[in-house]
Input
Amino acid sequence: MKRIVFLIVLFVAPLAMGFQNPPAGDTNARIKSVFIYNFTRYIEWPADYQTGNFIINMYGNNPAMLAELNAMAKTKTVGAQKIEIRNTTTLDGIGKSNILYVTPDVTTPLPDIIAKIKGKSTLLVTEKPGFAKQGSAINFIVVESRQKFELNKANAEKYNLKVSAQLVTLSIPVEDNK
Amino acid sequence: MKNKVSIRALLLFLVVILGTAGLRAQTYYHHDRAWDFIMRGQVDSARSEIELQMKEPGSDKDPECWYLYGFVYKEMYKKYENTNTTSPYRLVAFNGFKTALSMDTVSARMQSTRDNLKYLAGRFYNDAVATLDTVNHQTAVSCYTLYRQAAILADPKIDIVKKDVEFYLALASTYNVIYSADKRKNAAYFDSTKNTYTRVLVWDPNSYTANYNLGLLYWNKGVDLMYDIDYDDSLDLVFTVQDKSVDLFKQSLPFAEKAYEMEPKREETLTVLSGIYYSLHDFEKSKKYQDMLDKLRSQPK
Output
């Protein structure tokens, strides 16, 4: 056998293995924002709350939630009403609104908040265990890692709000503490 | 009488020698000419001769013919298709050497065949790396598959799993780039990415990169589903999508936790774990990892 000398070329070329980036956004805020928008489709406000802007007031400090609500307001309306997002961190900042969403970091006693919206047609949305039984109409809760909401229909009706049967079906119904 | 015997023996010897030489000249005529052409650098002529040789009876079972066949085509590849990542000549050369090795018993030639296979393996590998991008990744996979075969034949003791892990991690990363560029249009690449990382974990369950990226892939997908929800979607649909997202978050967790076990001081691992637990509404655990992350970041580097 004849031998031929040849050069073996074996480069060890580098391979890029890459790391992905964590996702942007807050899924918990996102889904609550979607829920809040959906509440406007299943709840009817009295006529005097169906003119002007549809005001959603967030009481408390949650930048991610505020960002999601603002993003929603940019693209959606409630009927012919433009959605206006407000944010307050004081009890006195609670004015007339269609929805008052109270973030879990708020330490103001619930009765004080309820007193602020007395006589108004404001859907009170909270996010603390037991609040649906203590006066709020809707209370966000977590069940098996999933965002759900309790609905106290009677509490909503106290504010002259009409709740559709479909929303009751989709919620975890709650009644007041007797 | 003694002289007659000697002459008869000499004649017999000559007949045997000349007969053998003649037989060799007849059987290896084109083979030898091919070698001569190769030695003179006339590759095309060598190719014509070796092709003629391979048509001779018995050549297809002769490792020497297959060896030269492979060698000639390797030279053709070097001369004409050196930069062609899908070179047909290289493939022919590879098959020639592979066939030679499968039937050879001559250790010196077998070593030379392995050396040639090692050379080809190197070229296949380089082309696999060079073509591993969002456009040419299929070529990369073909080249790597050939590299793998050639490398094992060249050196049966090679740690090929190490190379497999390296290549398929890079391939998964490439698939993910394609998927991330347009998640709707390239939705199929989610599975390609997932399956490739999963394949790596079969070879190397302790691959930090595969565990971390697979965890992140599932988490990202769950987040994407949530953000794909339209505000006008029915609440029924919203709940269904949320279920799917939560399933993905739960799927992501074991991989992220494994990555954390392996690299507890890496910022990205803590970020991901904190994020996944947050998405699962487990705020206590989310805060635990966030606190660890904050502490890590506050330490002087």
Residues 27-42 of chain A form the longest helix (16 residues). Chain A has one domain: 2-173. Confidence is low (pLDDT under 50) at residues 1-13 of chain A.
